[in-house]
Amino acid sequence: MATRRQQKVADLIQEEISDLVARKMRDPRAEGVTVTDVKVSPDLHYADIYITRLGTEEELREALEGLTAASGYLRRELASRIDLRFVPELRFHLDRSWERGARIDALLEEIAAEERREKAEE
After folding, report:
1. Which domains does the chain have, with CATH numbers?
2. What's the predicted TM-score (pTM) here?
């Protein structure tokens, strides 16, 4: 569980990185990217940034590559925007939580349909 400090830093990084990606990045691969979550290590040296984007799997992977390539630039920009002794190293990841949520929804719908069939047979 994240400490209060970790959560505050993560929230600040998420806000600033979202703004940087939307307004400052010129790489077309980063267009339409949404920062869904940020998790900061306990020592505040690493920030794991989770992203998603509408489009194909290939476009999502290209967006991840673009952000990873721009991580040095984003880190420098972040340093000028936030007041931290040490700006964390940025590590980008694809956010797959919506896929897990969709799978859970589908399973719950299957269970509900099975229950309806069983009641109809009674």
Report:
1. 4-95 (3.30.300.20)
2. 0.78
- Neighbouring-strand partners of residue 37: 50
Rounded to whole angstroms, the Cα distance separating 119 from 122 reads 5
DSSP bridge partners of 38: 49
Do the Cβ atoms of 15 and 61 come closer than 8 Å? no
Residue-wise pLDDT tens digits, 25-67: 888 898 899 999 999 999 999 999 999 988 888 998 999 999 9
Q: 89-94 and 46-52: which strand pairing?
A: parallel
Sequence-distant (6+) residues with CB within 8 A of 57 are none
